[in-house]
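Support request, please re-run this one:
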Amino acid sequence: MAKIDPINERILRELSRDGRISNLDLAARVGLSPSACLRRVQELERAGVIAGYRAVLDRAKLGFGFTAYVAVGLSQHTKASQEAFERAMALAPEVVECHNVTGTVEYLLRVEVADLVAYKAFHTEKLGALAQVNVITTYVVMGSPKDGRA
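Re-run finished. Output below.
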């Protein structure tokens, strides 16, 4: 595993802000020579600390202007029930995140669709139609003043 010293922390912070930053600019920002910076980045990648790079998309501009977090409680607390639910969520393009959580429900979903009509169709025809689902609580996102997802 790569050692996470203060320089590696700065590298990770800069790459989190801008994964397309050139090695030359990254080296200057963290106070290293370009070759030393590249070695550190490569080591962080090899160690799996940096799992990958991706583009951050503006979902609203792609036609997904409605976002909701959905808490889902299952009717049975069995491994088979959880696996069946997780398979269904993996196949649902509306579900962009699915988290197994602790508390009064088993899952927290991030759902992104075009509008309220599309959400209602997902809620009724897909999520509500699953035999494993017992409780659905929807939290509509009205704004995101801080969103650190990358």
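The domain at 6-46 is CATH 1.10.10.10 (Arc Repressor Mutant, subunit A). The chain is about 40% helix and 20% strand.
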